[in-house]
Description:
Elements: H1 3-21, H2 31-45, H3 49-62, H4 84-97, H5 103-112, H6 123-132, H7 137-149, E1 163-174, E2 180-190, E3 196-202, H8 207-221, E4 226-229, H9 238-246, E5 250-253, H10 263-282, H11 287-300, H12 308-315, H13 328-334, H14 344-350, E6 353-358, E7 364-367, E8 370-373, E9 382-388, E10 391-398, E11 405-410, H15 435-462
Parallel strand pairs: 1-4, 4-5
Antiparallel strand pairs: 1-2, 2-3, 6-9, 7-8, 8-11, 9-10, 10-11
Amino acid sequence: MSTNEITNWQDETALERFQLISPLLDDRMDSSQLVQKRKEIAEACGKSEKTIRRYEQAYRDTGFGGLKPQNRTKHRSQKLPDNFDELLAEAIQLKREVPRRSVHQIIFILESEGRVGVGKLKRSTLQRYLYNAGFGQKQMRKFTEGQKSSAKRFCKPHRMMLLQADIKYGPQVLNKDGKKVKTYLTSIIDDHSRYILSSVFYDNQEATIVEETFRKAYLLYGHFDAAYCDNGKQYITAQLKRSCAKLGSKVYHAKPFSGQSKGKIEKFHQVVDAFFAEAKVKHIKTLDELNRYWSYYVEKYYQKQPHDGIREYYESYGTDVPEGGISPETEWNRDSRPLSFIDANTVGEAFLHYETREVDKGGCISFKGGLYEVSTSLIGATVTVAYDPMRYDTITVTYPGIVPIAAKRTEIGAFCDKKPEIPVSMLPVEAETSRMLDVLEKKHRESRARRTDAISYSSLQKGGEL
Length: 466
């Protein structure tokens, strides 16, 4: 029998089996309806309900290929039982029911059920055929380990239902002192569209860089239902959970040693590896350069390229996909679920950190290596400090019964203040420039730039290039 003849025979058999079980693939049917339908199909085709159930499960597990019969190119020994195909199918079913079942136990069951005579089925023969079918001892061990360590493939039906987040080590760059430092990339990807909401390199791997990434995602794209992270120390902090909870989002964590469950962000890291190769050739030196070129790579390349994961998602539902594929940007923009934006102040407050300090005799507090002037009226009081962990230039100091104070980092002067009862922050200062005129000048430049862009766009339209 030629290879083509074998393939055609297998495909035809698989098609016949698919036609038998196709009524059972309707997800709207409940368990009782499925049982009744299997009985009807079995009676109509003359096969057992167990066989029909086996065909159905094979298709659900591996698709159309799972319905193809075993390759019969090799000549079968005349010593094999006449019903060996059926015996092998039952042996596979027994192995799938309990992966730890040995070949001896499977033969014992088949003999005890009267499916084969005692001694007719040899252990070495059945073991060889099970291995060729993908159900050998080592193969099943990997299968069971995979079941314990990872979840089945999934994909949410809409954007912002679930985000996946992770950190990846980046290349070394030079800091301001000219010394080499390690970089760390923290990213957030939308589970459905594979669209990148935030991805930035930092020169440290503190928990604050993860908080900053989440905050950027909230500010740019609004509320999301839940985030899925690993158990890294940056993702299990009470601060991150509390900040997300304030904004109505949940944070879930993957089980230990189950990297496969975060497959979408792990797949995205392969894109990051490709960027690293380009960055090496570009001889990128600084963190600012690294982030600038990385933003180009994400926005102008990754977000616009067809994504195999999106294609697989739609094909699993039998939906046709355009020949050119679907990019994360396209899938994100065409999603029917509207974005729910959040006020920037609300987001900022949700990610604030809080600590307490005692006000000294000069009406100041020491905070993060700096001195902040509060008020002489609070000398000796323990105040609450609210601050952005990424920026310490201004903090908010609160105390019961007073209006919150926005305190800025100050320097100790050469002379003491002659009127300490009045906070320095309230004293008049000499202006270096007119901020009013500076703002108007800025608005003028922006307006002129917009008019220039509009004229350029109009010219292109008239020229027929758009």
